[in-house]
Write a structure and sequence with these properties.
By secondary structure, this protein is α/β, with parallel strands linked by helices. Helix content is 42%, strand content 15%. The protein binds nicotinamide-adenine-dinucleotide and thymidine-5'-diphosphate. Thymidine-5'-diphosphate (TYD) binds next to helix 6 and strand 8.
Length: 359
């Protein structure tokens, strides 16, 4: 891995991954590709990232000419594909953008990689297309009587997505695997669980609770709040992707996540408790939690067992949930300028208007 294209690099995980790559792999050159006009991606996420080894490319992963030119000019040997529409609620609001970016965009990149890396006379041995997927493609793992464990999926479980977001990611995953199977394109996939950490867009649960908790606004909890997710610090996820690229063989997939699941009710309670410690004047922040109508088709439980990445690649999360949450809360408290910049964007203002009635 010498020349790496990271798609979706101005998003939450993409910006963390680019930072980690540049910091930890001094020999690697990075091309950050992002459309920058979407919801969650903006240049503020890449603030401080620079130097001669980093190139910012503004562009759409669905633009075949741009993607093919970038691959040729950079001579990249690795593509880490994170660009996507990512918010389940928005996929229910308008699935079209999810089909376009997540399915068509992934196909456009795969085609470009096939044309470039599998061209006559070129050895694709050192190349890799890594698809950053999600545990949501395995669908709801809730099973009667099995509590927070449910019925865990593994990397060989058939995909059974249930939201438009998850369905579009699953379609992309199928395409990725088909390019390996049909043409021998060197691909790999990782199925990450829910991430938390710096620079996540505030429409997602964790930053939403922090932002609204600090502002003293109602914190909406869908349905009974008993839905279970597995939560992982974004840096632990990035380390897993790096390991998969460097130590994992092509054609392989790895689930990435901690052992334990956490209900939304418990998670929100823990964030409120952290806010109470740091901002006692607003305590108890849990008084702001408001049960609202459930998300249509809301999956109750995601669980993908991460045995393979532990056994094969030696990956383990460095941060347990509590320190990961504490570090995340502190990051948002310490970075009000980032929050102001995000909440000043038109896309956030219109979502707030529509979703929270302007508050
Ligand atoms: P994000 O929404 O914060 O970032 C996505 C980025 O993709 C944004 O910067 C956006 O501008 C960019 N983008 C969107 N459409 C584009 C297009 N057409 N062309 C180029 N760039 C485009 O999302 P995230 O949370 O950082 O997720 C990144 C990837 O990781 C996604 O593929 C997601 O499915 C996957 N994932 C996320 C999580 C999570 O908990 N956040 C967990 C598992 C997997
Ligand atoms: P989210 O961060 O949107 O991730 P995902 O749906 O991809 O898992 O939501 C995490 C959980 O929190 C999910 O079960 C939905 C729930 N949730 C709420 O209860 N209220 C909210 O306002 C949001 C955004 C999410």
């Amino acid at each position: 891995m010498k020349r790496v294209i990271v798609t979706g690099a101005a998003g939450f995980i993409g910006s963390a991954f680019v930072r980690r790559l540049l910091e930890q792999r001094p020999e690697v050159e990075v091309w950050s590709l992002d459309v920058l006009t979407g919801v969650a991606g903006h240049l503020g996420n890449l603030e401080g990232v620079g130097g001669p080894r980093h190139h910012l490319v503004r562009g759409d992963v669905c633009d075949a000419a741009l993607v093919q030119r970038l691959l040729a000019e950079s001579d990249a040997d690795t593509i880490v594909h994170l660009a996507a529409e990512t918010h389940v609620d928005r996929s229910i609001d308008g699935p079209g953008a999810f089909v376009r970016t997540n399915v068509l965009g992934t196909w456009t990149l795969l085609e470009a990689a096939r044309l470039r890396w599998l061209r006559p006379g070129h050895d694709p041995g050192g190349c890799r297309f890594h698809q950053v997927s999600t545990d949501e493609v395995f669908g709801d793992r809730w099973a009667a009587g099995r509590g927070v464990e449910g019925d865990p999926a593994d990397e060989d479980t058939a995909l059974a997505p249930r939201s438009p977001y998850a369905a579009s990611k699953a379609a992309a995953d199928h395409l990725v695997r088909s390019y390996q199977h049909t043409w021998g394109l060197p691909v790999s996939l990782s199925y990450g669980c829910n991430n938390l950490g710096p620079r996540q867009h505030p429409e997602k649960l964790v930053p939403m609770v922090i932002l609204r908790g600090l502002a003293g606004l109602p914190i909406p909890l869908y349905g009974d709040g008993a839905q279970v997710r597995r939560w992982l610090h974004v840096d632990d996820h990035c380390d897993a992707i790096l390991l998969a690229l460097e130590a994992g063989r092509p054609g392989r997939a790895w689930a990435v996540g901690p052992d334990r699941g956490t209900s939304n009710l418990e998670l929100v309670g823990r964030i409120c408790a952290l806010l109470d410690q740091r901002r006692p004047a607003g305590a108890p922040h849990a008084r702001l939690v408001t049960h609202v109508a459930d998300r249509p088709g809301h999956d109750r439980l995601y669980h993908t067992a991460a045995d393979r990445i532990r056994d094969e690649l030696g990956w383990r999360p460095r941060l347990d949930l509590e320190p990961a949450l504490a570090a995340t809360v502190d990051w948002y408290l310490d970075n009000p300028a980032w929050l102001s910049r995000v909440t000043a964007r038109a896309s956030w203002r219109s979502w707030t208007e529509r979703w929270y009635g302007g508050r």
